[in-house]
Amino acid sequence: MNDKLLTKYQVMDYLNISRRHFEKLVMEENLPIIKITQNKRYMRLSDLHRYLNTKMVNQPQEITQESETDEFKWKNIWGK
Predict the structure, then answer these.
(1) Are the CB atoms for 5 and 42 separated by under 8 Å?
(2) What angle do CA 13, 50, 17 make, to 5 degrees?
(3) CB of 41 closer than 8 Å to CB of 5
(4) Residue 39: per-residue pLDDT
């Protein structure tokens, strides 16, 4: 698999967070990292995207056009 590895500093920059917040995400929120040594930490880009998708509050919805029947009902409500 050809997945790009990001350093912890690249992840912090990508998420615009501090080192303290990064450590909190790793310890408390189970941010998936690859720990090589005490200070060498990496993360797969696909793992980061997967993690962020699990934290999404509202999923984007498909945009649909209003039908004429909806507009007609709306006009009946207001009597116009």
Answers:
(1) yes
(2) 20
(3) no
(4) 82
Q: Are strands 34-35 and 5-7 parallel, antiparallel or unpaired?
A: unpaired
Q: How much is the mean pLDDT over the chain? A: 82
d(CA 69, CA 67): 5
Q: Parallel, antiparallel, or unpaired for β 41-44 and 34-35?
A: antiparallel
- pLDDT tens-digit readout, 35-68: 888 888 899 999 999 999 888 877 667 776 655 5
Tokens of 17: 């967070």
**Fold classification of 5-54 (topology level):** Arc Repressor Mutant, subunit A (1.10.10)
Domain ranges for the chain, please list them: 5-54
Is the overall model pTM greater than 0.85, yes or no?
no
Contact between 31 and 23 (Cβ < 8 Å):
no
Per-residue pLDDT, 8: 92
